[in-house]
Structures are given as structure tokens and as C-alpha cells.
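User: Please predict the structure of the protein below. I'd like the answer in C-alpha cell form so I can feed it into my own downstream comparison script.

Assistant: Understood. Taking the following sequence of 325 residues as input:
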Amino acid sequence: MKSVLEANITAGQKVLVRCDLDVPVAHREVQEKYRLEASLETLKYIISRGALPIIMGHMGNPGGKTDERLSTKTLSFFFDNELGAGKYELMENLRFNRGEEENNLQYARQLAGNGNIYVNESFATSHRKHASIVGIPEWLPSYAGIRFLKEIENLNVLQGDVKRLFVIVIGGAKLESKLPVVKKFLKRADFILLGGKLGTEWKEEIPFNLVLPEDYAPENKDIGKQTIAKYTEIINRAGTVLWAGPMGAYEQPEYSLGTIEIASAIAKKTKEGAFTVVGGGDTITAVSSYSLLDKFSFVSTGGGAMLQYLAERTLPGIEALNKRK
């Protein structure tokens, strides 16, 4: 997997850059900019070489249909401010075409026709076998973005001999999709703490290092105070922490306590010298709202992609870049 810094980018070229554009927007204002900002170093480098970055990505899940509420054009004001109007092009939401999620060969070829070089700067989507992730590299010289490689570098730290205790906190919903990952992590982590709906859905035998919530807030929309106390006590003894997924319906103030307390406990451990990694769109949004985004060792743009990479040590997007000669 080669870096964009190794690419032969020359003046006048068009460089397709797959970015993570799936951010919340309201009243022409990006509510959480972290994922967009993650791509800026690569985009500015391409511009410095005299080339034109063609920014592409998706917003939401329109299911192959055009939905103006999910148009990536709403992000033009952000990129105009950061890159300068006229110094880039922004493609429409890729998921307006069913060919994106179906990894349609002809759609991938059509996308590839828009540029001379391809750069993957969307680590968060690289666990998907979509046309813009695995299809385009079949047609163009392909490279990893600067931030993409930083993701791999920091996550690889967790693959080695980490400082104990190694504590993993996993929240959110959909246990089915996270169950294989949890099982793999149980072999490496000292403790795995489940939050969100995951604890209520766990039906299998409970290993000694898997900790489930002892109590919940009303309607199971947040972990309870006993669970918060138990989880923070474990985190307080950690030397390495990985966190993906909020503890409850954090966007509702009455169900945000669990997420706030876990975020604060992990941030405190960072200050004490622990290596801490947090990731995922909802986690980033929550942590940012508490003004704690800069209080961790590394913030990954990926949630599902981060967990899958740590469990399997590769992703479809990585395989596609490695395959391209």
C-alpha cells in the first residue's frame, strides 16, 4: 500500500480522492467537522502539486435514489473556506447511484474516468466493498491518503504488546454485527465493557473478562449509575483503552450520563499516560459535544472499520490498494 506522497502527481492532473463526507449538516453548517478535516492534509498536498482534487464520498443512506437533503453539494461552503473556491471539484453523493453499494463494475469504471490517479482517504468506509473503495483501484494507479496511513499506524499500536490493563469499551446497537469482533477481542483484552443495547442482547455464556451492565436508565436508553461506577473503576486501572460506540442515547440529555462519564474517565487516563483510542461517527459527535475530542491519544474516523481492522488486520479497502501494482 503506497502513500499519496509517493504518487507522481503533476500539474494539470485530476486526482480522485475518496473522502469521508458522511457528516451532519444543518442550515448550511457542518455540525461535526472532524471527519472532513481529516482529509484536508491530503487535499492540500494535491493542490500544492498543481493538481485538481476531485472529492467524492457519500452522505447517509439514500438507497440509490436522489435526495437533495443528502446532497454533498451542501459541503461546498466548507471546502471553499478550507481549500479555496475553484481549487477542487466535489462530486455528488455516490450513493445516489445503486452501483456504488453494489460495487458495479461499470459504475466503478465510470467513476475512474473522472481522474488520472485515485487516493483512498476514507478509512471509515474501507470495510465496505463498494465501487469507490474496491472498484476504482481496478482502473487507476491507487494510493492511500496521509490520514489513512495515520489510522493504520495508530491502530497497529494496539496490535502489539500494549500497556496493561488493556480495556475495550464497545457501545452502540446491533450486537449481531459486533459479536464476531467482540469474540476476537476477548482473546487479547483484559476487560471488554459493553454498553448501549449490546448488553441486553448478549445471550451467550459470559467469559470472565466480558463485563455487562448491571443496571440501566429507563427504557434501557443508557447504562445505570452502578454500571458507570463499575466501568470507570476498571478504566481507572487501564494502561491502554479502546472505545467505540456511545453508552446510550447520548443525543438526549437525560440519557447522556453514561457516555459523558466514560468519555471523562478515558480522557483522564490519557492525561495520566495511558494510550487511548476512540472512534466512530457517533462517538466522535458525542465526545466533541463534551469538548473532549483533543483529550485522547488518537481519534479514529472509523467505528466499524476500526474494529474490523483490529480484528482482521486488514480491510477490503486496504486489500484493493495492495492489489493494485
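That's the full C-alpha cell string. The longest strand covers residues 14-19.
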